[in-house]
Specification:
With about 400 residues, the protein is of the alpha/beta class. The chain has helices spanning about 1-25, 70-85, 105-120, 135-145, 160-165, 165-180, 200-210, 230-240, 300-305, 315-320, 320-330, 335-360, 365-380, 385-390; strands at about 35-40, 45-50, 60-65, 90-100, 125-130, 190-195, 215-220, 220-225, 250-255, 265-270, 290, 310-315. The two termini are about 45 Å apart. It binds nicotinamide-adenine-dinucleotide.
Length: about 400
């Protein structure tokens, strides 16, 4: 009896510890639910955070990683709440982290994802999407199990957003709008792209098609620079062949981080988080930054940029093209409609954020967060509990 009581007390403590963890980071927006999934037969351990569903079911990716905490999963889910609200999509924010090696064999990955989808079959507040370590093949497994997924292969109704360049298309829109707040035009503007992957190469393609000149580019091997211009099609072909930007014929080869200091008018980070921080922000030699990667610039560095008069468009405003494309896919749209929606939403949001930043004298990121929070709270005002609590006669 004593042992049973002790065990029960131990369980209570563990439950209380989990609740403590949740409420440590809970705030007025969420998280709404945290679900832990464990299926030992396929070595599946995962956590789903549904942060906020006031605007609709939570749309956010599944990340495979060996070492992400529940709190980090919550922060990623919150970023999706803001990104979806800022993009004015009828979706809330959520995220799944599935613990494991993102490079594991596809067969094992598919098995784990099928088990995960099956475990979350009735969790209708969440729509599955790809993220680091998962791709369209993974999403097809989920569709096969339960449906309720975006980022599918073309054969099953998907719009392959990296192939068509949805996020790059959005970056080009944000750039055009931001130029209304700068003293130069796109024609002849010198562009540098850090990270010539799915986001970076399409941003370069769309901007050079509109008259900009790509003068610098980098990937995980190094950087290439030519003040007279680099040919985007050649770079895309090289990357398709599995080569690096260092194999570009002509131009100067540079170290990977030298891309930060290449003189330009528009600098586009499209690689990794925190690449610009207090230690290197002073090296930037540009007038405008369009954030393609997620959190590529630390908060402190953004403040330094603002004080130096360098304009930037924050990540979740500029790089929302991918999620807008995914949402369009979920609603059955084709690629053409999805691109139209990205154009309209990213332009509209960029104007709102830069205009608010200018008139209120605040950082563009502050303006972006204010816009997203206002939209989420606006939607929360229509929720049942909120309506009860504000209804006349409610005690
Ligand atoms: P990707 O893997 O296709 O491309 C990343 C590129 O960055 C590769 O060319 C890689 O070689 C390069 N790279 C890696 N480390 C680098 C470094 N230190 N310096 C320079 N280059 C480096 O990835 P992606 O889909 O293009 O995503 C890029 C970033 O944008 C990520 O932070 C991602 O989370 C974010 N993002 C992507 C999308 C999307 O639609 N794919 C949408 C929103 C945000």
């Amino acid at each position: 009896m004593r042992i049973m009581r002790n065990e029960a007390q131990g369980t209570d403590k563990r439950v209380i510890k989990l609740m403590d963890d949740m409420f440590r980071f809970a705030d007025e927006l969420g998280p709404f639910k945290i679900v832990y999934v464990y299926e030992p037969s396929v070595d599946l351990k995962a956590v789903l955070v549904v942060d906020n569903i006031a605007r609709g079911p939570a749309l956010g990716g599944i990340r495979i990683a060996p070492d992400v905490s529940t709190e980090e999963c919550f922060r990623l889910a919150r970023a999706m709440t803001f990104k979806n609200a800022a993009a004015d999509l009828p979706y809330g924010g959520g995220k799944i982290v599935m613990y494991g090696d993102p490079q594991m064999p596809q067969e094992k990955k598919s098995q784990m994802l099928r088990a995960l989808a099956s475990a979350l079959r009735y969790m209708e507040e969440y729509i599955f999407a790809p993220d680091m370590g998962t791709d369209e093949v993974c999403m097809a497994c989920i569709k096969d199990e339960i449906g309720r997924v975006v980022g599918l292969p073309r054969e099953v109704g998907g719009i392959p957003l990296d192939e068509v360049g949805a996020t790059g298309w959005g970056l080009a829109q944000a750039t055009e709008v931001a130029l209304q707040y700068c003293d130069f035009e796109l024609k002849g503007a010198r562009v540098v792209v850090q990270g010539f992957g799915a986001v970076g190469k399409h941003a370069a393609r769309f901007l050079t098609q509109r008259g900009a000149v790509l003068v610098g580019v980098s990937d995980s091997h190094g950087a290439a620079h030519n003040p007279k211009g680099l040919d985007v099609d050649t770079l895309i072909r090289l990357k398709k062949e599995g080569k690096s930007v260092l194999d570009y014929p002509g131009g100067k080869k540079l170290d990977i981080d030298a891309v930060i200091a290449i003189p330009c008018d528009i600098w586009i980070p499209a690689a990794r988080p925190d690449v610009i921080n207090e230690s290197n922000v002073h090296l930037l030699n540009t007038k405008l930054i369009i954030e393609g990667a997620n959190i590529p610039i630390t908060e402190r560095a953004e403040k330094i940029l603002y004080e130096a008069g360098i304009l930037y468009v924050p990540d979740f405003i500029a790089n929302a093209g991918g999620v807008i494309c995914a949402a369009s896919e979920y609603q059955g749209a084709n690629q053409c409609t999805a691109f139209g929606s990205i154009e309209e939403k990213v332009r509209n949001n960029t104007v709102q954020v830069l205009e608010a930043a200018k008139t209120k004298g605040i950082l563009p990121r502050e303006a972006a967060v204010q816009l997203a929070v206002k939209r989420v709270k606006g939607a929360m005002g229509y929720r049942r509990w909120s309506l009860f609590s504000s209804a006349p006669g409610f005690v």
